[in-house]
Design brief:
215 residues, Rossmann fold, six-stranded parallel sheet, globular
Length: 215
């Protein structure tokens, strides 16, 4: 059974940096699919600029043409903060022994000890750390020790067991951030060529990131 990738985030808005990372991991790790799971109430940041239904619509619009990209709205349907450990527990119950690969950036990985019940993540899934220039993997402390003990050297290790390995995987660096995109819209400029055209259309039609539209 090929692994299922899990790519969570606020996607406020989704952009080509998200999509390129997901595409490279889908192909390079030979995943069955990669699930985009928008967060309803992210525990580690301010409330999103666009509401949950609109962010879900943008994720669906951005991913619908790519085979292997799947949108999962479970965190938007679940009450309370969007804790990753709860999402993985639900997926593990549904997918049985199929490998699950949780995708995180190196910045998120270095902050892992602040996550809710973070020690349980590797009991539910593998971790795939999407590595970009400018970030270094920890070499000491509890994360350095964890990486040394659990690090995978080959993609095949993610296929051979359902949970427990950490793969650091280089991905193409695109200097795009959702924060910057919201600022571009708020200043009256155009997101053309930074987000997929269907996402740009939704943002323009709803004015969700203009000074008038933002909460």
């Amino acid at each position: 059974m090929k692994p299922v990738g899990v790519f969570g985030g606020t996607f406020d808005p989704i952009h080509y940096g998200h999509l390129r990372t997901a595409f490279e991991l889908l192909e390079g790790l030979e995943l069955e699919q990669i699930r985009f799971i928008p967060a309803a109430r992210p525990p580690h940041r301010d409330a999103p600029g666009a509401d949950a239904e609109l962010r879900l619509a943008m994720v669906r619009a951005a991913t619908e043409a790519q085979p292997g990209f799947v949108v999962d709205d479970r965190e938007l349907r679940r009450a309370g903060p969007s804790y990753t450990v709860l999402t993985l527990a639900e997926l593990r119950a549904e997918l049985g022994p199929r490998p699950i690969c949780l995708v995180v950036g190196m910045d998120a990985f270095t902050g892992l000890p602040s996550w809710h019940r973070w020690q349980e993540l590797l009991e539910l899934a593998h971790l795939v750390v999407a590595h970009r220039p400018g970030w270094n993997a920890p070499e000491s402390g509890q994360l350095g020790e964890l990486l040394q003990a659990r690090r995978a050297d080959r993609v095949s290790e993610l296929h051979d067991s359902p949970v427990g390995r950490i793969l650091v995987r280089p991905v193409t660096q695109l200097e795009i951030s959702s924060t910057r995109l919201r600022g571009i819209v708020a200043s009256g400029r155009d997101l053309r060529y930074l987000v997929p055209e269907p996402v740009r259309a939704i943002i323009n039609e709803t004015a969700c990131y203009t000074r008038q539209g933002m909460r």
